[in-house]
């Protein structure tokens, strides 16, 4: 019987790492309700918010009346932003600021609300204030938000990779950079885009540019499926530079610069990399089924041992 249990543990250990990549950030509200769980890291599709937001607001209002905890009001303000009630959210955050000045969530969400209203100057003031309160929040990525707002205030000629993220990946067929720590930049850029795409729909020139940059970074760190998906999103958001077509091609197919020095084994390896996320998912599902079958077959012996 111990062998059976050890077998179950071993099978779980095999598929647990594969499942881990399916789980993203989760936002839990003050009333313990989960607002969203992001399911994919690397391609920013935005948050999948629940439909019944009015119910959540009622729950948060009841929670605040009962506890006087400002987290309930702050979360209500975020829900108002999701609903597109930006001015109402701003007024609520002003109320929170008057009760308890200097809260990070107030400054951050106020900045977001003002930007969505179109008041980029006021948005910049509050986002910079939020960074002063907590420079490490949002994975330390709010400097990108600041640059986005500055670009909006300066004009479209500042909608460039160099201005927005301080990097440029060239105009050639293959992206290039002299930056070493691309993984950290990829994480920060993903975070900013995932938040922004939750509220900003196509087409948008800044989002398009940043998605193109994220595609370039993904390609350079070896995540070609993510690169291809990000390039596609960039196209959807209005990125129309001629180089996009070339980079879509190189991220979709094996990177064959010269057929004579590119072995069949290398081609197979790149094709495998393109399909690896799907393979991991299928492997995880099969492992779960295998565990379920084993438990079912030996249920009369296993369950009594668990009591």
Automatic annotation (TrEMBL):
Q: Where are the TPR repeats?
A: 70-103, 104-137
Q: Mind listing the UniProt keywords for this protein, alphabetically?
A: Membrane, Signal, TPR repeat, Transmembrane, Transmembrane helix
Keyword Nucleotide-binding recorded? no
PROSITE patterns attached here?
TPR (PS50005)
**What InterPro entries has UniProt attached to this entry?**
TPR-like_helical_dom_sf, TPR_rpt
Recorded coiled-coil stretches: none
Annotated TM spans: 279-298
Q: Report if keyword Lyase is assigned.
A: no
Q: Which residues form the signal peptide?
A: 1-20
Query: Which Gene3D superfamilies does the entry link to?
Result: Tetratricopeptide repeat domain
The protein here is known as: Uncharacterized protein
Species in which this protein is naturally found? Chryseobacterium populi
């Amino acid at each position: 019987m111990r062998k059976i249990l050890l077998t179950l543990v071993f099978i779980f250990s095999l598929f647990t790492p594969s499942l881990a990549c399916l789980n993203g950030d989760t936002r839990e509200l003050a009333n313990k309700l989960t607002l969203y769980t992001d399911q994919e890291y690397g391609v920013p599709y935005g948050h999948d918010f629940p439909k019944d937001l009015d119910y959540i607001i009622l729950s948060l209002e009841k929670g605040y009346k009962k506890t006087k905890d400002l987290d309930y009001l702050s979360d209500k303000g975020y829900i108002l932003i999701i609903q597109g009630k930006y001015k109402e959210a701003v007024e609520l955050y002003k109320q929170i600021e008057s009760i308890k000045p200097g809260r990070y969530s107030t400054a951050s969400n106020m900045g977001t609300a003002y930007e969505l209203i179109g008041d980029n100057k006021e948005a910049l003031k509050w986002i910079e204030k939020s960074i002063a309160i907590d420079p490490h929040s949002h994975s330390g990525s709010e400097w990108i938000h600041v640059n986005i707002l500055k670009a909006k205030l300066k004009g479209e000629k500042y909608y460039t990779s160099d201005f927005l993220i301080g990097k440029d990946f060239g105009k050639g067929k293959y992206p290039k950079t002299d930056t070493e720590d691309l993984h950290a930049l990829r994480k920060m850029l993903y975070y900013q885009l995932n938040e922004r795409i939750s509220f900003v729909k196509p087409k948008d020139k800044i989002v398009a540019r940043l998605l193109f940059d994220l595609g370039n970074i993904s390609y350079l760190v070896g995540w070609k499926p993510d690169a291809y998906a990000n390039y596609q999103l960039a196209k959807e958001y209005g990125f129309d530079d001629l180089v996009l077509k070339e980079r879509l091609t190189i991220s979709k197919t094996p990177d064959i610069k010269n057929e004579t020095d590119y072995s069949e084994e290398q081609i197979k390896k790149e094709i495998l990399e393109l399909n690896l996320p799907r393979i991991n998912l299928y492997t995880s599902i099969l492992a779960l089924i295998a565990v379920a079958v084993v438990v079912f077959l030996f249920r009369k012996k296993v369950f009594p041992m668990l009591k």
